[in-house]
Write a structure and sequence with these properties.
With about 525 residues, the protein is an alpha+beta fold. Strands 23, 24, 25, 26, 27, 28 and 29 form a seven-stranded antiparallel β-sheet that branches. Strands 9-10-11-14-13-12 form a six-stranded antiparallel β-barrel. A hairpin with a 5-residue loop joins strand 6 (about 155-160) and strand 7. It has ten helices and 29 strands. It is elongated and about 80 Å long. The chain has three domains: about 1-20 and about 75-305, Thrombin, subunit H (Beta Barrel), CATH 2.40.10; about 305-400, Pdz3 Domain; about 420-515, PDZ domain (Pdz3 Domain, Roll), CATH 2.30.42.10.
Length: about 525
């Protein structure tokens, strides 16, 4: 992964990836007045006048001081207290450079010079690249938190403090799923550090302060407010981001977001921007997520997550209505991995998970995070709804492995070819002929969709020819007549929608389809 812009799903945004360049060139530096090392700024001497007695210096307050009654407050005390713990992270890595020209096109007098001094043409040669980001010290022993994408692939990591001290850092561990990394530096003296706050107490409209290293400008401070909380930006199921409008840019990645008390409530990780610069839409990883990940990285060097062995979806209002409930929340099981923890506990497709260990489940993301937080080998009680009745299943949580996926169990039944129409769908039984016609896998059984009425609700829900209906209202279907019977039963029960389990190119999922007249 490059340390340059990265687009996250659903936005044309970019990760606040570190500035990847050997030399950073910033325009307009002539506006900065500088002095030579050891040279003091020149001062003009004015006639001496009586001076007032010096003000007593008060200890740092816990909140920014008021300038005067009724005036806006200042962040100066807060920044002065936390800035020493915010560091600049420089990462060296080896990248392969490919020439974008043909060396044969170089004029003859210069071709030998090019070849002699390392020109390799299209083959490319390794070269050293420098990337920069931000980080913050979380305890005096030298543990530092930053983004995974800042240090990923780095051969040498250097940490520089605002006072000029530099250390070579050791990478303790990373977690790509949450984009968190933990570093460690050794120092003879205790290092300045900051504390985590409780992001669960954050409200939209609260002040926040971001400190970091945008474009290589270390210890840059910006302020703004919390724009939103619980943002899902398509960056994985384990993080609900805090959206802030404090300006953050490339190089701010890994830097802290502080609340008004100077506690870390998040870590800057992404921006949404059509231009690459800040437009006031930034995203921070919540402190509670960072804290839990760092604890595992510090103890084990990696993050172990619980594994249930199911594919799930959030229960939508239409799904809830099709099941006879208007206010039901939770996650519906689309498929169960054979032999997995859920299968061994008796969980089946169509079960709706309402609670884990007695705590209600809001949706599929909530269930994913809750299961991931459970230790492998522990037992958990899952409250599910099946056929209108509540059941409690005790599941022994497994250990999640990379690329571990769920799959539906195969069936061996076959049926003679039939066709029918229902819900705006043309239907046919899954047979060797329809398998070949629609390129269906050998383990897919049910009723294949042969055509879709473009004006139907099924079309609006994304059903396509070649998709296979596995169940209707949680009852397996093997023929088009099974589908028609299930639809008729739902209409007789005065249901407006029916819950359909569909297998297609995108996997297995539940869809609530309106029945219409």
């Amino acid at each position: 992964m490059k340390k340059t812009d990265q687009v996250f799903q659903g936005f044309r945004g970019r990760l606040l990836a570190s500035v990847a360049a050997g030399v950073l060139v910033v325009g307009g530096l002539g506006a900065f007045a500088m002095t030579q090392p050891g040279q003091k700024p020149q001062q003009q001497h004015a006639p001496q006048k009586p001076q007032p007695a010096p003000l007593a210096v008060a200890p740092h307050p816990t909140t920014p001081r008021m300038i005067e009654s009724g005036a806006p407050f200042s962040f100066a005390d807060l920044v002065e207290r936390v800035s020493p713990a915010v560091v600049t992270i420089t990462v060296e890595e080896q990248v392969k450079q490919t020439a974008d020209f043909d060396p044969d096109q170089i004029p003859e007098p210069f071709r030998d010079f090019f070849n002699q001094f390392g020109g390799q043409g299209r083959q490319g040669v390794p070269r050293k690249a420098i990337a920069m980001g931000s980080g913050f010290v979380i305890n005096k022993d030298g543990y530092i938190v930053t983004n995974n994408h800042v240090v990923q692939g780095g051969k040498k990591i250097t940490v520089k403090f605002p006072d000029g001290r530099e250390f070579t850092a050791k990478l303790i561990g990373t977690d790509a799923a949450t984009d968190v990394a933990l570093l460690k530096v050794k120092s003879d003296k205790p290092l300045p550090s900051v504390e985590f706050g409780d992001d669960r107490q954050v409200r939209v409209g609260d002040w926040v302060v971001a400190v970091g290293n945008p474009f290589g400008l270390s210890n840059t401070v910006t302020a703004g407010i919390v724009s939103s909380i619980g943002r899902d930006v398509g960056n994985g199921p384990y993080t609900d981001f805090i959206q802030i409008d404090a300006p953050i840019n490339r190089g701010n990645s890994g830097g802290p977001t502080f609340n008004i008390q100077g506690k870390v409530i998040g870590m800057n990780s992404m921006i949404f921007s059509p231009s690459g610069g800040s437009v006031g839409i930034g995203f921070a990883i919540p402190a509670s997520t960072i804290h839990d990940v760092v604890a595992q990285l510090q103890a084990h060097g990696h993050v172990a997550r619980g594994y249930l062995g199911v594919e799930i979806q959030s229960v939508t209002p239409e799904m809830a209505a099709s099941l006879g409930s208007k206010n039901m929340k939770g996650a519906i099981v689309a498929s169960v991995s054979p032999g997995g923890p859920a299968a061994q506990a008796g969980m089946v497709a169509g079960d709706i998970v309402l609670a884990v260990n007695g705590k209600p489940v809001e949706d599929s993301r909530d269930l994913t995070r809750r299961v991931a937080a459970l230790p492998a080998g522990s037992k958990a009680a899952f409250t599910v709804v099946r056929d209108g009745n509540n059941k409690t299943l005790t599941v022994k949580i497994g250990a999640k492995k990379d690329q571990q996926v769920a799959s539906a169990s195969p069936h061996s039944n076959s049926h003679p070819a039939e066709t029918a129409q229902a819900m705006g769908l043309g239907l046919a039984a899954v047979t060797p002929e329809t398998r070949r016609a629609f390129n269906l896998g050998g383990n897919v059984n049910g009723v294949v969709i042969t055509k879709v009425d473009p004006n139907s609700d099924a079309a609006d829900k994304g059903l396509e020819p070649g998709d296979v209906l596995v169940s209707i209202a949680n009852h397996p279907v093997r023929s088009p007549q099974d589908v028609k019977a299930s639809v008729a039963a739902a209409q007789a029960a005065h249901r407006d929608t029916v819950l359909v389990l569909v297998t297609g190119q995108g996997g297995q999922r539940f869809v609530a389809i309106k029945l219409g007249a």
